[in-house]
Amino acid sequence: MGVEINGSDLGRTIYGKPQIRCRNYENLHHNISNTGCITIGVITTGRSIGVDIEARDRRLHVRPELLMRKLFRTEKEGINCLEHGRLIDVWIAKEAVLKASGFGLTIGMQEVDLAANFKSATLNGWSFDLKNICFENYKITVAKQIQVV
Hints:
The two termini are 30 Å apart. The chain has helices at 64-71, 75-82, 87-101, and strands spanning 10-12, 18-20, 28-35, 38-45, 49-55, 113-114, 120-123, 126-135, 138-148. It has one domain (7-148): CATH 3.90.470.20. By secondary structure, it is an alpha+beta fold. It is globular. It is built from 3 helices and 9 strands, in the order βββββαααββββ.
């Protein structure tokens, strides 16, 4: 892409999201995620992008009822969503959307509405395309903002 960035061009937003501060590349968006010994990054032009990665067999050390309250507005919403995916799939998708939005975990995960097929989501009037990838023992979701609804 012909982009040259040095250390002084890198920083974080007030919400902790990594950002490129170089004014020559205002249309360039990126995000990173890591788990264990693996780190991944995504970069694109246009709309905002977010990514999350977790081991598919990662154990979440949180009481299930607390996790359900953090991820869903209602028990019914949680039950409906979990008919189509595992809890770790929901976590990864929602975190990728929150990262793409620029807010990160400052907004609750229950505010992200996932489509039943996990291929799209909405948050605060924004729509996101989701790409779900399996790589070895890892699950990755990339969320890209597509439009204001």
